[in-house]
Each structure stands twice: as C-alpha cells, then as structure tokens.
User: Which sequence fits this backbone?
C-alpha cells in the first residue's frame, strides 16, 4: 500500500516537474526575447547585447560549484523554492524600476545577473533531486519530459514574444513572467524531494562539513569515477568546439548565404522540433541499455552534421534547396542533442551517490560552460580571417577524433562491462 502511494506521488512529481519547468522556461525565454529586442532597438549596440549575454553566462559559471555544496548539504526543496521566489522578486524589482524611473540598461544587467544565479540554484538542485522525486525505472521518462518542456518553450517563446512585442508594453511582459514564476513556486512547494532520496541523514547536533572541504571531497569522489571524468572532459571539449557552430551558423546563413530572416527562423525552429520529437521518443521507449555508447554515436553524428553546415559554401545550391538542406541539418542536430544528453543524464542519476549529486552536477555545469565564452571569442576571430567552411570542417574533425579517443572501446567496456557478452550470443559493437 505504501509503495503504491509512493508511485502515485512519483507520477504526480513527473507532471508537476514538467509543468513547472515548462512554465518557468517559457516565461524566462519570452522575457529574454523581449529584453534582447529592447536592447538592440533602443541602443543599436552589439556591445550592450553582448554584455547582457555575459551577465547571463558569467554568474552561472562562477556560482555553480557553491550551488553544488548547498544542494548536497541543505534542503533541496527549500533551495528550489527560494530560488524561484527570488526570480519572482527580481522581476518585480525590474517592474518597479520600469514604472518608477523607466527601464535602464543597468537595471536590465543587474536583473539578468540575478536571474542567471537563481536559474543555476534551481537547475543544479532540481537535477540533483530527480532520483529523489521519481522511482528509478522512470528516471529516463523524467529527463525526457524535462527536455520536452524546454523544447516546447524554445519553439513557442519566440512566436509568443514576436506576437506580443510591440503590441504590449515591457511592464506587461514583466507581469506575465512574474505570474509564470509564482505558479512555478506553488507547484514546486507541493513536491516531496525526499520521496526516493538516499541521502545520509546527519545526526542531531552534527556540524556540516566546511564548504571548501566539501568541494574537495566532491572532486576526490569524482577522481574515483573514471567514466564520469571522461564524460566531463568530453563535455568541456565539445562545448569549446561547438563555438564553431554557435558563431558560424548565423554568420554563414545571414551574411554568406543571405537567407531571409523568416527562413532563418524556420531553420532554428527545426532544431527545437528535432529536440521535441526525440524527447517524446525517449519518454515512451524502454531505458537505453548502453547510454555511453549511444551518446558516443550521437556525438559522432553531431560532428558530421557540424561539418555539413559548410557544404553549401563549397557546392552552389538553389535557394530553396539550400533552405531545405539547413532545415534538415538543424532538425538532425536537435534530435542528436537529446540522443547525447538523455542517456548520459540517466546514467549519471543512477551511478552518482545521492550525497554527491549536487557537487558533481555543479562541476559538470562549470566545466561545460567554462570554455564557452573563450570558444565564442576565438571562433569570432577565426571567422573574420579564415574561410568558414574550413573552420567548420576542422572543428568537426577535431570533435570526432577527440570522442573516438576519449570514448574508445576500452572506456565503453569499463562503463558497460556487460557489452560483448549478451545472453543471445550476439556481441554489440563498442565503436
């Protein structure tokens, strides 16, 4: 009876978690869309726009390790709820400034920095809590539904933002975001973060481990997990090399191929649709048996697609065919993002000790984002002095070589010892 009640509560968590993520992601992305347009239309300054992006990335990178410590040592539910309340208050503060003094760049940059911090607290802590919210057989479903909610937000928020921008005032945008955030607070406050948690309870009166000692313990734990170390190194190098895609894609389509803005928007929409459909597939299929192997193949496919972005620069295609080509490439890219991320996230949820999840996921977030700004700056410089197609082909080749080396067959077998000796007698390829 008790088990049936826990499973029922876990089902409630699945949908509450998904709806909460959808509402907060949708609100955040519509806000980001409106603020970006406002900055560019008001100032016409790329520097101001880039400063807002830095205010989003830098606080996340700096705060993530400390968030991991808090997630492992304090109530995860309290952290998530307080972070969401802080989001609501930050937007409320910007609304007050807008109505009282008028919207200013300084107010936008401060708000963006605060929202970056609150989303880091909420994101790392929520990710650390998945295995406590739902039963183990449905972890893949939970991760897939999370990806689905973000894909829905990616598809819908530009359309909603574009529809509303110019029709309603900035204060209306902010009020809508505040309402979305309040709903997310209400939903998150009804969840039981300890339902399936396996965290060790501290004895009454026992002092908590100092922060730096706790973070050192997290790194020491990570060193004992060679497969996790490989995953983190792959994430670090992939995010750096993906600067070629992040910077080059818009540059090639808008500057080189002279694609119309609405067609460019459609290709970006194809990316979100690819993510959404693959997330739906993962939410209904059986759990992936060999996650690292599946993710490796997904990364190899992404490398191939990244190299293919430069193909129309070498082979002249009619405009319609070029548009269709990029839509298909971006659809495949979106689908492969889910193929790479979902199995690895499920694997990490199951393998990492519950008491270390906050620190490990925060280290992964820090490492993943650490080289992104450097990659974007370097590739921005490269695209000014070198042919775009060769930058993409070189980066794609490096990506494929790195993955083949780091996720070599011996590492795959270490992660999945059962590979090569299935009951059917037919061995699965580890390449």
Assistant:
């Amino acid at each position: 009876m008790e088990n049936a009640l826990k499973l029922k509560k876990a089902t409630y968590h699945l949908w509450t978690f998904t709806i909460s993520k959808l509402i907060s992601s949708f609100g955040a992305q519509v806000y980001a869309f409106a603020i970006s347009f406002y900055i560019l239309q008001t100032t016409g300054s790329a520097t101001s726009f880039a400063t807002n992006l830095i205010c989003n990335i830098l606080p996340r990178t700096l705060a993530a390790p400390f968030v991991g410590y808090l997630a492992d040592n304090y109530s995860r539910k309290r952290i998530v709820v307080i972070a969401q309340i802080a989001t609501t208050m930050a937007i409320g503060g910007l609304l007050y400034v807008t109505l009282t003094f008028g919207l200013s760049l300084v107010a936008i940059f401060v708000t963006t920095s605060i929202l970056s911090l609150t989303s880091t607290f909420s994101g790392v802590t929520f990710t650390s809590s998945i295995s406590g919210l739902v039963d183990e057989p449905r972890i893949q479903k939970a991760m897939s539904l999370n990806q689905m909610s973000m894909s829905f937000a990616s598809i819908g928020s530009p359309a909603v933002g574009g529809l509303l921008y110019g029709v309603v005032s900035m204060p209306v945008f902010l009020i809508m975001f505040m309402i979305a955030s309040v709903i997310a607070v209400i939903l998150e406050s009804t969840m039981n973060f300890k339902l399936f948690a396996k965290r060790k309870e501290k004895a009454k009166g026992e002092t908590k481990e100092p922060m730096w000692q706790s973070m050192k313990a997290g790194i020491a734990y990570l060193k004992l997990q060679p497969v996790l170390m490989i995953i983190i190194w792959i994430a670090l190098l992939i995010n750096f090399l993906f600067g070629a895609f992040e910077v080059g894609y818009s540059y090639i389509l808008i500057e080189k191929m002279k694609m119309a803005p609405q067609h460019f928007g459609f290709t970006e929409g194809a990316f979100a649709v690819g993510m959404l459909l693959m997330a739906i597939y993962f939410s209904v299929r059986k759990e992936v048996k060999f996650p690292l192997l599946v993710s490796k193949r997904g990364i190899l496919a992404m490398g191939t697609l990244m190299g293919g972005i430069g193909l129309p620069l070498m082979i002249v295609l009619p405009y319609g065919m070029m548009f269709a080509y990029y839509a298909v490439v971006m659809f495949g890219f979106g689908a492969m993002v889910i193929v790479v991320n979902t199995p690895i996230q499920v694997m990490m949820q199951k393998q990492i000790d519950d008491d270390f999840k906050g620190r490990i996921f925060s280290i992964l977030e820090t490492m993943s984002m650490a080289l992104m700004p450097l990659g974007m700056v370097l590739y921005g410089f490269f695209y000014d002095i070198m042919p775009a197609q060769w930058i993409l082909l070189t980066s794609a080749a490096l990506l494929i070589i790195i993955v083949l080396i780091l996720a070599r067959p011996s590492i795959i077998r270490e992660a999945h010892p059962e590979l090569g000796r299935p009951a059917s007698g037919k061995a699965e390829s580890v390449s």
The chain is about 80% helix and 0% strand. The two ends are 46 Å apart (CA to CA). The mean pLDDT is 83.
